[in-house]
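Treating backbone geometry as a discrete language has practical consequences that deserve illustration. Part of our work consisted of pairing the sequence of a single chain with a tokenised description of its backbone. We regard such an encoding as a compact summary of how the chain folds. The amino acid sequence and the backbone structure tokens for this protein are reproduced below.
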Amino acid sequence: MNEQFIETFQKTFGKKPIYHVRCPGRVNIIGEHIDYNDYSVLPMAIKASTFVLVAPSQESRIRIYNVDPTYPSFELSLPSDWNGCNAPKWHDYALCGWKAVLTFLKEEPRGFDLLVTGSIPSSSGLSSSSSLVCSVALATLYIHTKQSFERISRSNFADLCAHAEHLIGTQGGGMDQAAEILSLEGRALKINFNPLSSEPVFLPSDAKFVVLHSGQTMNKAASSEFNQRVAECRLAGKLLLKQNDKEWPKVGIVNLRKVQEMLGCDLSSMISLAEELPEEITREKLDELLGTEAVLSCLTSNTIHLTKFKIRARARHVYSEASRVATFASVCQKNDIAQMGKLMTESHESCRKDYECSCPALDNVVQSCLSAGALGARLTGAGWGGCVVALVNGSSDVSLSHLNVLFTSSPCAGIDGVNMS
């Protein structure tokens, strides 16, 4: 534990911390933008982490400070009616973890002082924001109960933290939180949804994952791009059911995995059915086909203003990426590192062409990695900037050191907390 971090807490708040939380970031090896469609993904936790120190306060307030002065200190008087926002600042990620635990415990808030530091690059697709959410949620749980995973299972805690981020306008599916909470040392994790479960995946010993920054960042919750893709997938699901004469709910959400189950098709068949969807469709036409109420149920405050939606390519990406994840897990067992790389590159191409979540900076890094001898490379995280993960054979002399390498990663364990009192 970093002694300087503890000293900073004592100088800032005039007391000793009682609890320390470490929550890793994550790199998604394969399976992008499919978790919120309930399809499996395959990330791993990384060494870079968020660290939190916390102590109870007798004051009717919570104080959330950051060691990095670029993140302004924040104080909230109690009781508070804070219940989320659509344009989150850094402290709002902390608050949604806090709020979710209070709702779970059905308790009134207690005052506390909390200090944050970390080593995960922000807005880089390595889930620094979700790591903060999870860290503060666990710290809040301890402040209120003096317990951590004795009070709630890791799986349920991951689900709680995933839903917490809905308070700040991010409609993600839970991959980030599951990876950061459920991961085991030395193994990647195949995460399944609805119900949430995980399977350790042993990676070939010569598989080396290199994480590189594109030089471009993006805050996914501050942009409508991420939530637009969520809406397009929901709309694609209802259109698929309608086009295939299947009874479908006029309101509510139907994700693309549920559509597959309702149609009784395999993934290959779903890719073919996706090809029958319109490439682009107007809001007016959607209202005509599905009904205004059904369309509105697929939208959020970040997407309700949109007048055009791309449907075919979004569904094609989701179904083809789900197929790639299943194949990737299988070839890991066979130690087929070359095929792993091929699948990663195919994933990037689908993200670039069909999901349109890449950008020139990411595409350039991917191409540079492949030209230097990487077996595969792809964007990781939501995209539109951030990082690339490249696979190289550790037994070879391939080097990516001439590029903007952040770190070479091996799988790490998930979140943990330490009682310091």
In short: The mean pLDDT is 94. The chain has two domains: 3-203+412-419, 224-316.
